[in-house]
Amino acid sequence: xxxxxxxxxxxxxxxxRITYRELSxxxxxxxxxxxxxxxxxxxxxVISAYKINFSSGMDExxxxxxxxxxxxxxxxxxxxxNMGQCPGVVAAAxxxxxxxxxxxxxxxxxDLVSIRKYMTRLESVKDLEIHTIITGxxxxxxxxxxxxxxxxxxLENPRMTIAEIADxxxxxxxxxxxxxxxxxxxxxxxxxxxxxxxxASGIPFILEIEIDDQVxxxxxxxxxxxxxxxxxxxxxxxxxxxxxxxxxxxxxxxTELNDIIRDVRKQSFAKNVISRISTYHSYFPEIxxxxxxxxxxxx
Length: 299
Description:
By secondary structure, the chain is of the alpha+beta class. Among the domains are: 3-44, Arc Repressor Mutant, subunit A (Orthogonal Bundle), CATH 1.10.10.10; 145-185, Arc Repressor Mutant, subunit A (Orthogonal Bundle); 197-278, 2-Layer Sandwich (Alpha-Beta Plaits). The protein has helices at 3-14, 20-27, 31-43, 56-59, 76-83, 109-120, 145-154, 162-169, 173-185, 197-200, 218-228, 254-266, 285-295, and strands at 47-54, 62-70, 89-95, 99-106, 125-132, 189-195, 203-211, 233-238, 244-251, 270-283. α2 packs across α3, α7 (145-154) packs across α8 and α8 crosses α9 (173-185).
């Protein structure tokens, strides 16, 4: 994967409904070349799925990032899939050293307690940390009946063409285009992709960083990663209540991994850095799909 592929993926993460023509103009290659690159990314498993997400503001959700330390006796795949059975969990992953991470959403303090109780009852768990993470709240909009129909159709394939949506939603192409534009321009609905970091590069890993937020803010640190390790860096989760962040990266060799770790440790914002390599991860899209169906229920 090269920088053009990475750029295309980042554009698809922001809005997977972006057209081949728009990507062509942005990246300076033909629309056919863009199409072929996306097909290859799909075939290689880098793009595992296209998805729809609602903002936290749409149903008043908050997110947490959890860290489980185990005694290492459990099978990673089984343990991750068991984590995914917890209500609210949308993604979970196993890392070296018997450590597991998960992302979950909740609405009430009771939901948060339920997540904690579920995770601590899993066999072989020694310690659990739950960090409230900083997320953009996004808009809360009232969906029209046409927008609800469009979103329900797009659950099958968010990259469906206007003509296909119009046919399945039984709307005119003009009405579909108008309502989709409103959805895409809002911060309430996001059309995105799931990326398999292990397919994108050979070694996906996480950096758990205790930071000095008097030196740089979370957003400045994220920008530092993008400027200095753009091809390797993918995502960051920032704890809201303590100076800690979790950066997700992927590289092809252990040499690259060690170079990045050394570079981060040299930075004045990094007080302590722990690195772990991913061994297995899984997404749990049914939870999000269920919420979307609830919010797009037709009267």
